[in-house]
């Protein structure tokens, strides 16, 4: 199957657009789900300091983030198996219920252990939801309008990025941090109702798909590997936390977690992914490198701006929002019909644009220029991410049989989250090892971000390997 080979029936189905009568309700429900999950991921960063103080867990602050990422990895792998065997609807509905349940548990928790349990349940639900939503898009929407669907989904991340931290701060100060978690339950329930009403459309698309090429034994193997990769990621994140350049049980645990990832990840991704084999493997490798470079950089930008340049958290957050706007613009650019059949080139261009933006961040940091100048390279980096990530989503589905959209979507999300986990863990380890004290950490930031810019340049090479 090729991206350019859409037939007349496909074009006729997509004539109404993503918000037309045929797909409008489904699009709104999917966008609502993505927006709510994005809001929760952005807003929790603002609420977490208050959570940590009230639940007496300041020293365990980072676990609230790593636990959710770990169970999200597990959900991503399980969703691929579930969608291939039973269609996309069961995974999609279960993911919503688990995400809402997890957020409810977080809001009601009286201790940090219960809070972590809620985060784990929410992460599992988010993983199930993301993959199932991608499968719905691949099987239900005509190929001619999929790029526009992914443009809309990418845009769904922008508004939460802009208003999430501000709204969460207001809710926390006006009522309680608990409402930051409780308020997401209502839109999730509304989306659930819409999807139940449109379940016939989703099930009909699943019924038209041939059986998956993976047998029961392969599905069971994938599920166990998913558990292995989730545990390994959690151990690695714990082991690299507050890393010191000396042997310790924590360092050994971090290395063992990394070994576990190296053993499990290649078996859950298309064969030849880390060898940059042509076609789908290079799609997955590009999707791994992009978040590794981008999130490995922006996670520490607020720390640099506040600790080295004296900006407030609100000012640093507003600069990060500019990167989100660039991402949305890049996603809109790739959705244009003129790029049909040439989307692999957009991946290489996006990788080069990301590398250029990250190099600009390094330059502003090293030269000690006016801190607000970092907005320009952040917008450039976001532009590259928007062009490349949305294009890779389209390519992953167009290069895969509909019967295997579950495993392809699972692999894509797995590469995405795994890249984020490793990028953040690697930059965190470098920073912890080179950290001296606030105001003197410019060499550490520069070393970290030179490395992430170099990773971004690998996307240029991998993108050129996508076309078969």
Fold and architecture overview:
The chain has about 475 residues and is mainly α. The chain folds into two domains: about 15-210, MFS general substrate transporter like domains (Growth Hormone, Chain: A), CATH 1.20.1250.20; about 275-468, Growth Hormone, Chain: A, CATH 1.20.1250.20. Helices cover about 75% and strands about 0% of the residues. It is built from 19 helices and no strands. It has helices at about 10-15, 25-55, 65-85, 90-110, 110-140, 145-155, 160-175, 180, 185-195, 200-205, 215-240, 250-270, 280-300, 300-305, 315-335, 345-365, 375-400, 405-435, 440-465. Helix 2 (about 25-55) packs across helix 7 (about 160-175) and helix 13 packs antiparallel against helix 17. The longest helix is centred in the N-terminal third of the chain and has 31 residues, at about 25-55.
Write out key terms for the chains shown:
single chain, 468 residues, mainly alpha, Growth Hormone, Chain: A, 2 domains
Count structural domains: 2
Query: Percent of residues in beta strands?
Result: under 5%
Strand count, sense and barrel status of the largest sheet are: none
Q: What is the percent of helical residues?
A: over 70%
CATH class of the largest domain: Mainly Alpha
**Taking Cα atoms only, what radius of gyration do you get, to the nearest Å?**
21 Å
Shape: globular
Q: What is the distance, rounded to the nearest whole angstrom, between the alpha carbons of the first and last residues?
A: 11 Å
Name the helix and strand elements from N-terminus to C-terminus, one letter apiece.
Answer: HHHHHHHHHHHHHHHHHHH
- The tally of beta strands, per DSSP, is 0
């Amino acid at each position: 199957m090729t991206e350019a080979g859409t037939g007349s029936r496909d074009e006729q189905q997509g004539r109404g657009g993503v918000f037309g009568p045929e797909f409008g309700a489904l699009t709104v429900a999917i966008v609502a789900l993505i927006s709510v999950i994005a809001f929760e991921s952005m807003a929790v960063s603002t609420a977490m300091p208050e959570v940590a103080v009230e639940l007496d867990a300041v020293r365990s602050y980072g676990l609230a983030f790593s636990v959710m990422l770990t169970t999200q990895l597990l959900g991503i792998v399980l969703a691929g198996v579930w969608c291939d065997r039973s269609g996309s609807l069961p995974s999609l509905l279960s993911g919503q219920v688990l995400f809402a349940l997890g957020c409810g548990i977080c809001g009601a928790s009286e201790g940090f252990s219960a809070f972590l349990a809620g985060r784990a349940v929410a992460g599992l639900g988010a993983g199930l939801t993301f993959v199932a939503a991608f499968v719905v898009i691949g099987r239900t929407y005509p190929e001619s309008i999929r790029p526009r669907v992914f443009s809309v989904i990418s845009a769904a991340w922008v508004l939460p990025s802009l208003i999430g931290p501000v709204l969460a701060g207001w809710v926390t100060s006006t009522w309680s941090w608990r409402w930051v978690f409780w308020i997401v339950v209502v839109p999730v329930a509304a989306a659930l109702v819409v999807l139940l009403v449109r379940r016939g459309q989703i099930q009909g698309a699943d019924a038209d798909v041939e059986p998956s090429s993976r047998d029961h034994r392969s599905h069971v193997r994938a599920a166990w590997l998913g558990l292995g990769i989730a545990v390994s990621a959690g151990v690695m994140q714990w082991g690299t936390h507050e890393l010191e350049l000396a042997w310790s049980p924590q360092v050994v645990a971090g290395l063992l977690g990394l070994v576990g990832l190296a053993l499990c990840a290649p078996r859950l991704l298309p064969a030849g992914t880390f060898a940059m084999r042509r076609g789908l493997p290079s799609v997955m490798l590009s999707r791994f490198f992009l978040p590794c470079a981008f999130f490995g950089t922006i996670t520490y930008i607020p720390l640099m701006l506040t600790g080295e340049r004296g900006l407030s958290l609100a000012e640093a957050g507003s600069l990060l929002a500019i990167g989100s706007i660039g991402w949305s613009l890049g996603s809109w650019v790739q959705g244009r019909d003129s790029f049909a059949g040439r989307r692999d080139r957009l991946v290489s261009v996006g990788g080069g644009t990301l590398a250029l933006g990250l190099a600009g961040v390094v330059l502003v940091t090293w030269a000690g220029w006016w801190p607000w100048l970092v907005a320009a390279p952040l917008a450039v980096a976001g532009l590259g991410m928007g062009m490349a990530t949305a294009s890779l989503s389209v390519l992953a589905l167009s290069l895969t049989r509909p019967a295997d959209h579950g495993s392809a979507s699972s692999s894509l999300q797995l590469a995405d989250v795994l890249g984020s986990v490793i990028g953040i863990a690697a930059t965190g380890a470098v920073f912890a090892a080179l950290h001296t004290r606030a105001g003197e950490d410019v060499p550490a930031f520069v070393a970290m971000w030179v490395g992430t810019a170099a990773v971004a340049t690998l996307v240029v090479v991998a993108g050129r390997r996508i076309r078969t």
